[in-house]
Design goal:
Elements (H helix, E strand, L loop, with lengths): L2 E9 L2 E6 L6 H11 L5 H4 L3 H9 L2 H24 L5 H17 L4 H12 L19 H7 L7 H19 L5 H11 L1 H7 L6 H19 L2
Antiparallel strand pairs: 1-2
């Protein structure tokens, strides 16, 4: 995978560049998303499969990129199913595809989004917390409204809101050395609390949350 310098990950004091999907694959993400979501859009329904097949036969290098993207998507599907074995394969594939699509749209490492959603809901689309947070990314109703999410139980809208909110926090804290800590603390406790305490708020829930997500993200990045 090629590196992107859009966000740094702090590993024992070292600044490690976060990775994103390989260049060249991104251009197919929107098309593959539509095709994998079972005709979710009019554009997907109008695809001429004969033209598509002819296109890729005449451009094997493009087909290779698509195959590589599909392999990535299948890997993310397996992670989704690991956390929620009850999800039908088609639903898990849709979640994996949407997660990759929105991670690319907002220039985030999809492994970070996976770590957040895994800790928030274990990929349960209809999860509701005792405080009222909803869906995959456990969006609070007020946050969802601010992000333009009308139905937090809709996986498309929820993953859009989740990744967009993470991106907002990255833009807010991107120049700080401990940017990942601040992003995650803001996602859990709100940016106002992070601003007030000039760092991770002294809430056990938030501190534990930051540790859990970072540990899981570290595993996804480094395999240990």
């Amino acid at each position: 995978m090629e590196k992107s310098g859009s966000l740094k990950y702090d590993r024992h004091g070292e600044q490690e560049e976060m990775l994103k999907m390989p260049a060249g694959i991104v251009m197919f993400a929107a098309i593959l998303l539509m095709l994998s979501c079972g005709g979710a859009t009019a554009a997907a329904e109008s695809v001429d499969w004969g033209v598509k097949e002819q296109y890729f036969q005449s451009r094997p290098e493009e087909q290779k990129k698509v195959d590589e993207y599909n392999n990535i998507k299948q890997a993310y599907l397996r992670v989704v199913k690991y956390y929620n074995k009850n999800l039908p394969d088609a639903q898990a594939l849709k979640i994996a595809s949407l997660l990759l699509f929105y991670a690319d749209k907002f220039d985030l490492d999809p492994r970070l989004v996976v770590a957040v959603v895994a800790v928030e809901s274990r990929f349960q689309p209809f999860a509701v917390s005792p405080k009222g947070a909803q869906g995959l990314g456990q969006l609070m109703p007020g946050t969802a409204r601010m992000l333009g999410v009308n139905n937090a139980f809709d996986v498309n809208q929820n993953l859009y809101g989740t990744t967009r909110y993470l991106r907002i926090q990255l833009d807010r804290w991107g120049k700080k050395d401990n940017v990942l800590d601040l992003i995650l603390a803001s996602y859990n406790a709100g940016p106002e609390a992070v601003e007030k305490y000039k760092g991770i708020p002294p809430y056990n829930e938030t501190r534990n949350y930051v540790v859990k997500v970072k540990k899981l993200y570290h595993f996804f990045v480094y395999g240990k």
